[in-house]
Protein backbone atom coordinates (compact mmCIF):
# COMPACT_ATOMS: atom_id res chain seq x y z
CA UNK A 1 0.00 0.00 0.00
CA UNK A 2 1.06 3.59 -0.56
CA UNK A 3 1.01 6.43 1.95
CA UNK A 4 1.13 9.89 0.39
CA UNK A 5 2.46 12.76 2.44
CA UNK A 6 5.32 14.85 3.72
CA UNK A 7 7.98 14.03 6.30
CA UNK A 8 7.08 17.12 8.35
CA UNK A 9 3.35 16.43 8.81
CA UNK A 10 2.41 15.11 12.27
CA UNK A 11 -0.68 13.38 10.81
CA UNK A 12 1.53 11.57 8.31
CA UNK A 13 3.97 10.78 11.10
CA UNK A 14 1.29 8.95 13.08
CA UNK A 15 0.40 6.88 9.98
CA UNK A 16 4.07 6.05 9.44
CA UNK A 17 4.37 4.90 13.06
CA UNK A 18 1.37 2.57 12.65
CA UNK A 19 2.68 1.26 9.31
CA UNK A 20 6.17 0.63 10.72
CA UNK A 21 4.64 -1.28 13.62
CA UNK A 22 2.29 -3.26 11.36
CA UNK A 23 4.72 -5.53 9.54
CA UNK A 24 2.66 -4.86 6.39
CA UNK A 25 4.08 -4.09 2.97
CA UNK A 26 3.94 -0.31 2.35
CA UNK A 27 5.80 2.57 0.86
CA UNK A 28 5.81 6.31 1.40
CA UNK A 29 5.23 8.57 -1.60
CA UNK A 30 6.47 12.05 -0.81
CA UNK A 31 4.01 14.74 -1.84
CA UNK A 32 4.09 18.50 -1.33
CA UNK A 33 0.40 19.31 -1.04
CA UNK A 34 1.02 23.05 -1.43
CA UNK A 35 2.69 22.77 -4.83
CA UNK A 36 1.07 19.66 -6.32
CA UNK A 37 -1.33 20.58 -9.16
CA UNK A 38 -3.30 17.33 -8.92
CA UNK A 39 -2.72 15.86 -5.46
CA UNK A 40 -5.17 12.98 -5.89
CA UNK A 41 -7.23 13.60 -2.74
CA UNK A 42 -10.47 15.59 -2.35
CA UNK A 43 -9.30 17.08 0.95
CA UNK A 44 -6.24 18.73 -0.63
CA UNK A 45 -4.47 17.58 2.52
CA UNK A 46 -2.02 14.87 3.46
CA UNK A 47 -1.95 12.07 4.41
CA UNK A 48 -3.94 9.84 2.13
CA UNK A 49 -3.55 6.15 1.51
CA UNK A 50 -4.11 3.78 -1.38
CA UNK A 51 -4.38 0.04 -0.89
CA UNK A 52 -5.51 -1.46 -4.18
CA UNK A 53 -8.97 -0.02 -4.88
CA UNK A 54 -9.28 1.35 -1.34
CA UNK A 55 -8.57 5.06 -0.87
CA UNK A 56 -8.51 6.66 2.58
CA UNK A 57 -8.37 10.44 2.99
CA UNK A 58 -7.70 11.04 6.69
CA UNK A 59 -5.05 9.95 9.18
CA UNK A 60 -7.70 8.59 11.56
CA UNK A 61 -9.20 6.18 9.04
CA UNK A 62 -5.68 5.28 7.90
CA UNK A 63 -4.36 4.48 11.38
CA UNK A 64 -7.51 2.49 12.22
CA UNK A 65 -7.28 0.56 8.93
CA UNK A 66 -3.58 -0.23 9.38
CA UNK A 67 -3.97 -1.30 13.01
CA UNK A 68 -6.90 -3.59 12.25
CA UNK A 69 -5.31 -5.04 9.12
CA UNK A 70 -2.27 -5.90 11.26
CA UNK A 71 -4.49 -7.54 13.91
CA UNK A 72 -3.84 -4.73 16.41
CA UNK A 73 -6.26 -2.55 18.34
CA UNK A 74 -6.96 1.05 17.32
CA UNK A 75 -8.58 2.78 20.33
CA UNK A 76 -11.03 0.83 22.45
CA UNK A 77 -11.51 3.11 25.41
CA UNK A 78 -13.79 6.17 25.16
CA UNK A 79 -11.54 8.39 27.29
CA UNK A 80 -8.54 7.48 25.14
CA UNK A 81 -10.63 8.31 22.07
CA UNK A 82 -11.50 11.70 23.54
CA UNK A 83 -7.81 12.39 24.29
CA UNK A 84 -7.01 11.42 20.70
CA UNK A 85 -9.67 13.91 19.54
CA UNK A 86 -8.16 16.63 21.73
CA UNK A 87 -4.78 15.94 20.13
CA UNK A 88 -6.45 16.24 16.73
CA UNK A 89 -8.15 19.54 17.57
CA UNK A 90 -4.88 20.90 18.94
CA UNK A 91 -3.15 20.04 15.68
CA UNK A 92 -5.95 21.29 13.45
CA UNK A 93 -5.96 24.69 15.16
CA UNK A 94 -2.18 25.01 15.41
CA UNK A 95 -1.62 23.99 11.77
CA UNK A 96 -4.33 26.34 10.52
CA UNK A 97 -2.71 29.20 12.42
CA UNK A 98 0.68 28.23 11.01
CA UNK A 99 -0.62 28.21 7.43
CA UNK A 100 -2.63 31.42 7.87
CA UNK A 101 0.41 33.22 9.27
CA UNK A 102 2.55 31.91 6.41
CA UNK A 103 -0.01 33.30 3.97
CA UNK A 104 0.39 36.77 5.47
CA UNK A 105 -2.44 37.06 8.02
CA UNK A 106 -1.80 38.88 11.30
CA UNK A 107 -3.07 36.31 13.82
CA UNK A 108 -3.55 38.91 16.56
CA UNK A 109 -5.73 41.09 14.39
CA UNK A 110 -8.57 38.65 13.84
CA UNK A 111 -11.18 37.52 16.33
CA UNK A 112 -11.30 33.93 15.07
CA UNK A 113 -7.54 33.37 14.94
CA UNK A 114 -7.30 34.74 18.49
CA UNK A 115 -9.91 32.15 19.46
CA UNK A 116 -7.87 29.45 17.76
CA UNK A 117 -4.79 30.53 19.74
CA UNK A 118 -6.84 30.35 22.95
CA UNK A 119 -8.04 26.87 21.94
CA UNK A 120 -4.45 25.66 21.51
CA UNK A 121 -3.45 26.91 24.97
CA UNK A 122 -6.58 25.50 26.59
CA UNK A 123 -6.09 22.03 25.06
CA UNK A 124 -2.41 21.97 26.05
CA UNK A 125 -3.49 22.59 29.65
CA UNK A 126 -6.05 19.80 29.51
CA UNK A 127 -3.70 17.28 27.90
CA UNK A 128 -1.03 18.12 30.47
CA UNK A 129 -3.39 16.99 33.23
CA UNK A 130 -3.87 13.44 31.88
CA UNK A 131 -1.87 10.45 33.21
CA UNK A 132 1.39 9.50 31.49
CA UNK A 133 1.80 6.19 29.63
CA UNK A 134 4.79 3.87 29.84
CA UNK A 135 6.76 3.55 26.62
CA UNK A 136 5.88 -0.07 25.86
CA UNK A 137 2.18 0.69 26.31
CA UNK A 138 1.72 3.67 24.01
CA UNK A 139 -1.69 3.59 22.35
CA UNK A 140 -2.91 5.74 19.46
CA UNK A 141 -4.12 8.49 21.79
CA UNK A 142 -0.60 8.72 23.27
CA UNK A 143 0.94 8.76 19.79
CA UNK A 144 -1.50 11.43 18.55
CA UNK A 145 -0.75 13.72 21.47
CA UNK A 146 2.99 13.06 21.23
CA UNK A 147 3.23 13.77 17.47
CA UNK A 148 1.12 16.91 18.00
CA UNK A 149 3.22 18.28 20.84
CA UNK A 150 6.44 17.39 19.00
CA UNK A 151 5.20 19.20 15.87
CA UNK A 152 4.44 22.32 17.93
CA UNK A 153 8.04 22.29 19.18
CA UNK A 154 9.47 21.54 15.70
CA UNK A 155 7.64 24.52 14.16
CA UNK A 156 7.89 26.72 17.26
CA UNK A 157 4.12 27.08 17.33
CA UNK A 158 3.54 26.76 21.08
CA UNK A 159 5.48 26.39 24.28
CA UNK A 160 5.22 23.49 26.73
CA UNK A 161 7.50 25.22 29.24
CA UNK A 162 4.86 25.18 31.97
CA UNK A 163 3.54 21.72 31.10
CA UNK A 164 5.75 19.15 32.79
CA UNK A 165 3.63 16.14 31.84
CA UNK A 166 3.81 17.04 28.16
CA UNK A 167 7.57 17.48 28.42
CA UNK A 168 7.78 14.07 30.08
CA UNK A 169 5.54 12.56 27.39
CA UNK A 170 8.07 13.61 24.74
CA UNK A 171 10.89 12.12 26.84
CA UNK A 172 9.00 8.83 27.10
CA UNK A 173 8.20 8.89 23.35
CA UNK A 174 11.89 9.41 22.61
CA UNK A 175 12.47 5.85 23.87
CA UNK A 176 10.11 4.52 21.19
CA UNK A 177 12.06 3.44 18.05
CA UNK A 178 9.22 4.25 15.61
CA UNK A 179 8.64 7.68 17.16
CA UNK A 180 12.36 8.40 16.83
CA UNK A 181 12.57 7.03 13.26
CA UNK A 182 9.69 9.28 12.10
CA UNK A 183 11.00 12.56 13.55
CA UNK A 184 10.75 15.46 11.08
CA UNK A 185 13.99 16.25 9.25
CA UNK A 186 16.16 18.86 10.98
N1 LIG B 1 -7.87 15.61 9.49
C1 LIG B 1 -6.73 15.43 8.63
C2 LIG B 1 -5.81 16.64 8.75
C3 LIG B 1 -4.66 16.59 7.74
C4 LIG B 1 -3.92 17.92 7.64
O1 LIG B 1 -4.31 18.96 8.17
N2 LIG B 1 -2.79 17.87 6.92
C5 LIG B 1 -2.00 19.06 6.68
C6 LIG B 1 -0.52 18.71 6.76
S1 LIG B 1 0.01 18.41 8.40
C7 LIG B 1 -2.24 19.56 5.28
O2 LIG B 1 -2.17 18.78 4.35
N3 LIG B 1 -2.52 20.86 5.11
C8 LIG B 1 -2.66 21.45 3.82
C9 LIG B 1 -3.70 22.53 3.80
O3 LIG B 1 -4.45 22.67 4.79
O4 LIG B 1 -3.78 23.21 2.78
C10 LIG B 1 -6.01 14.14 8.98
O5 LIG B 1 -6.09 13.70 10.15
O6 LIG B 1 -5.41 13.51 8.09
How would you concisely characterize the structure shown here?
The chain has 186 residues and is α+β, with helices and mostly antiparallel strands. It has two domains: 2-69, 3-Layer(aba) Sandwich (Glutaredoxin); 78-181, Up-down Bundle (Glutathione S-transferase Yfyf (Class Pi), Chain A, domain 2), CATH 1.20.1050.
Could you walk me through the main structural features you see in this protein, from its secondary elements to its overall organization?
With 186 residues, this protein is an alpha+beta fold. The protein has two domains: 2-69, Glutaredoxin, CATH 3.40.30.10; 78-181, Glutathione S-transferase Yfyf (Class Pi), Chain A, domain 2 (Up-down Bundle). 52% of the residues lie in helices and 8% in strands. The protein has helices spanning 10-22, 59-69, 78-102, 111-128, 140-154, 164-173, 177-181, and strands spanning 2-5, 27-30, 48-51, 54-56. The chain has a four-stranded mixed beta sheet. Helix 1 (10-22) runs parallel beside helix 2. It starts with a strand and ends in a 5-residue tail after the last helix. Glutathione binds at residues 9-11, 33, 44-47, 58-60, 95, 99.
Structural key phrases:
186 residues; alpha+beta; 7 helices; 52% helix
Query: What's the level 1 CATH class of the largest domain?
Result: Mainly Alpha
H and E order? EHEEEHHHHHH
Strand order of the largest sheet: 2-1-3-4
Q: Count all strands and give the number.
A: 4
DSSP helix count?
A: 7
Straight-line N-to-C gap: 27 Å
Itemize the secondary structure elements and their pairings:
Elements: E1 2-5, H1 10-22, E2 27-30, E3 48-51, E4 54-56, H2 59-69, H3 78-102, H4 111-128, H5 140-154, H6 164-173, H7 177-181
Parallel strand pairs: 1-2
Antiparallel strand pairs: 1-3, 3-4
